[in-house]
Write a structure and sequence with these properties.
Layout: E1 4-10, H1 17-33, E2 38-40, E3 62-63, H2 68-80, E4 83-91, E5 97-104, E6 110-116, H3 128-131, E7 140-143, E8 146-150, H4 159-167, E9 172-176, E10 180-182, H5 192-207, E11 210-214, E12 217-220, E13 223-226, E14 230-232, E15 238-241, E16 248-254, H6 258-266, E17 304-310, H7 321-335, E18 340-345, H8 348-360, E19 368-372, H9 380-383, E20 386-390, E21 395-399, H10 405-408, H11 419-427, E22 431-432, E23 444-445, E24 450-454, H12 455-458, H13 469-480, E25 484-488, E26 505-509, E27 512-516, H14 526-537, E28 548-552, E29 572-573, E30 577-582, H15 588-598, E31 603-608, H16 619-622, E32 624-627
Parallel strand pairs: 1-2, 2-4, 3-4, 8-9, 9-11, 17-18, 18-19, 21-22, 24-25, 27-28, 30-31
Antiparallel strand pairs: 1-16, 4-5, 5-6, 7-8, 10-13, 11-14, 12-13, 14-15, 17-32, 20-21, 23-24, 26-27, 29-30
Helix pairs in contact: 1-2, 4-5
Length: 645
């Protein structure tokens, strides 16, 4: 890229998009008359800044590509041989809307595709996510006058974006912006105008390239835009700067030939160590994830304060509802003396009825804490919270993963994603929200840093289609304090979840795993379970210690035409008992014996789950432990955990 004259159009914006287009064309004509060859307009140049309103009708400002802006500026480009950068509110063919920038080359061609803003801000009174889908990549444009990149407004705060385009050969980055003071928020010591300029000059220095940032002026709703458009060279020197309040065409000659000298002086690219940058690809705010704050997910055998269940009522899902209700009576009877039982019911009528059923089973309902909530299904472990503890501060918190009903299989059950919030009305705990889909039954932890998961579930495109294995591992580390992940392959046959790990492998202590195997070579479970078993046998814990892997039999095929996901591994570890699903199968006794050997200090109780498994789950799926905040305390009888303020 040789020396070029560039122009930034710093302008005020009205509510009339046609007027704004006409005004921009006039100012662009002025820039051309002064010799400008690359001309950039401010963010959303045809629209008032509607994202400051939560529910504005912005449809009048949306345009297609090609559209009014590209047609007008393409003609101007052809006539004068100028390159234009046009930031617009794009309405894509899909119907989605983007905060975009179109580059028109000097011959009038639109350089497709347009750049769609990657980083989307959401911090009232700015509601960008209400209006804009996020773009998914950075783009470079080879224009007649050089290779340029465009990043938009909020992108400017992310050095990774500037580095990404610099590594791909960008000679200059244009930053169309719309930034200003929000009414009542300007205070001494918080000069956002200076910070805005400084961070972008830093991008220029760190990447050895020129940058040009163009802003608006004027007042719009609660925002007073502070102008100050500027152009900086590869050493961060400001070549030209506009005023804070006036419309103007900022003109400067730039010489990108100095870029290489700036880079080579400090070997900015050659001495990079990308193998050490793993943390850069993690989508977590520093210091604000559970792990960073000292929380971890305890192992299930660690002390509990309580267990949570949701009383069954859906006969379509559970045809033998009476038998399943009796399962709940057995479970509550076994757990209530060592940990508080929190029971969800849908209303007072159900509460009264359940109280009667419990009384018939010899259980005083006054010892059960009822919570009246609106829920659809009983698989509370999957849609409820994952509890994490900080034993140093004696505090408890919830991790609220997204729940999409096992890959959108049951849309009418997705409402259960809100149950956690309703539970928290009583608990009043901090909530961490990772923003990805995950079910509680899909992760098995040893409490010391190791987790077991399955590829068939966590890598299923019906959960998080854009997430790689490394992304999932990073989330588990940040939100559950997992530093080592063991990836098994498939789940058991009949499991509609895609392969929850709690039907396959369960930790019984930090280095010992019970793993389900199938002895019948003709059974469809034989090969995948054998593969999982071998993976575990060759695996270690987080400290590199080999795991002890104990085989656990299966109950064979359970069910009629439709095979059901029956597994002895779907047990619940209480404070004093282990509740194991049984299926009236000859392997019930050997399985119970194997689990008793693994838990010598607990009473192992079999629960006949032939009716429950018709709903596609087991004992572990319906139970959710609430860990104690103190490692030496179990069975706290209060409904809400104590925590230090």
């Amino acid at each position: 890229m040789s020396k070029q004259t560039i122009a930034l159009i710093q302008t005020a914006v009205s509510e009339d998009p046609d007027h704004n287009l006409k005004h921009a064309l006039e100012m662009a004509g002025s820039a051309i008359s002064k010799g400008a060859r690359i001309i950039c307009l401010p963010e959303l140049y045809r629209a008032p800044y509607f994202p400051q309103y939560e529910d504005a009708d912005a449809s009048a400002y949306a345009e297609t590509i090609p559209g009014a802006s590209t047609e007008a500026f393409s003609a101007l480009a052809r006539e004068h041989g100028a390159v234009f950068i046009l930031p617009i509110y794009e309405r894509a063919a899909s119907g989605e809307h983007y905060n975009s920038a179109v580059v028109v080359d000097a011959d009038g061609r639109v350089l497709f595709p347009a750049y769609q803003k990657v980083h989307i801000h959401q911090d009232p009174p700015i509601y960008d996510k209400r209006y804009f889908h996020a773009g998914d990549r950075y783009r470079l444009y080879d224009t007649r006058y050089g290779r340029i990149a465009v990043l938009i407004s909020y992108d400017q705060w992310f050095p990774e974006a500037a580095r990404a385009v610099a590594l791909r050969g960008a000679e200059m980055i244009f930053y169309p912006s719309a930034i200003g003071w929000i009414s009542g928020e300007r205070s001494p010591g918080s000069d956002w105008r200076e910070a805005w300029e400084t961070v972008q000059r830093g991008h220029a220095i760190a990447n050895g390239l020129h940058i040009a940032a163009v802003n608006r002026v004027g007042e719009d709703g609660c925002i007073r835009f502070f102008g100050s458009s500027f152009i900086a060279d590869a050493f961060g020197n400001v070549i030209a700067r506009a005023s804070e309040a006036d419309e103007e065409v900022l003109i400067a000659e730039v010489d990108p030939s100095i870029n290489e000298a700036a880079r080579e002086r400090w070997n900015l690219f050659q001495n990079r160590r990308p193998e050490t940058y793993r943390a850069l690809i993690r989508k977590f705010p520093p210091g604000k994830t559970p792990q960073a704050l000292g929380y971890r997910m305890p192992a299930e055998w660690e002390p509990h304060d309580a267990v949570w269940l949701a009383w069954p009522y859906d006969r379509e899902m559970l045809p033998d509802l009476a038998a399943v209700e009796w399962n709940y009576v057995e479970i509550i009877a076994a757990l209530r003396r060592s940990e508080t039982v929190n029971l969800l019911v849908t209303g007072e009528q159900m509460r009264t009825r359940v109280g009667g059923i419990l009384l018939e089973g010899g259980i005083d309902a006054s010892g059960v804490r009822f919570h009246i909530l609106d829920y659809a299904d009983v698989w509370l472990r999957d849609y409820g919270p994952m509890f994490v503890v900080n034993r140093r501060t004696e505090s408890l918190a919830m991790v609220h993963w997204n729940f999409n009903a096992w890959g959108e299989k049951y849309p009418d059950l997705k409402k259960d994603s809100e149950v956690l919030l309703m539970m928290n009305r009583d608990l009043n705990l901090p909530i961490f929200t990772p923003g990805i889909v995950l079910e509680g039954s899909s992760v098995e932890v040893n409490g010391a840093g190791t987790a077991i998961v399955t590829e068939s579930c966590l890598m299923n495109p019906n959960r998080n289609p854009r997430s790689a294995r490394e992304d999932i591992e990073a989330y588990l580390e940040a939100y559950l304090a997992v530093s080592h992940v063991i990836w098994l392959k498939e789940g058991i046959a009949g499991d509609e979840t895609g392969g929850h790990v709690d039907n396959i492998a369960r930790f019984v202590n930090p280095t010992t795993v019970l793993c389900v195997i199938e002895d019948d070579r003709d059974d469809e479970n034989y090969a995948p379970l054998k593969e999982n078993y071998e993976i575990l046998r060759s695996s270690t814990d987080q400290d590199g210690k080999p795991l002890t892997v104990i085989p656990l039999p299966t109950p064979g095929r359970v069910g009629g035409e439709v095979r059901l996901p029956a597994s002895y591994a779907n047990f619940y570890i209480g404070n004093t008992v282990v509740l194991v699903p049984t299926f009236k199968h000859p392997n019930d006794a050997p399985a119970l014996a194997r689990i008793r050997q693994a838990f010598p200090g607990r009473k192992v109780i079999g629960i006949d789950c032939t009716a429950l498994v018709e709903g596609m789950g087991g004992v572990h799926c319906i139970t959710l432990q609430q860990p104690s905040i103190s490692s030496g305390v179990t069975g706290q009888r209060a409904g809400s955990p104590s925590r230090k303020k």
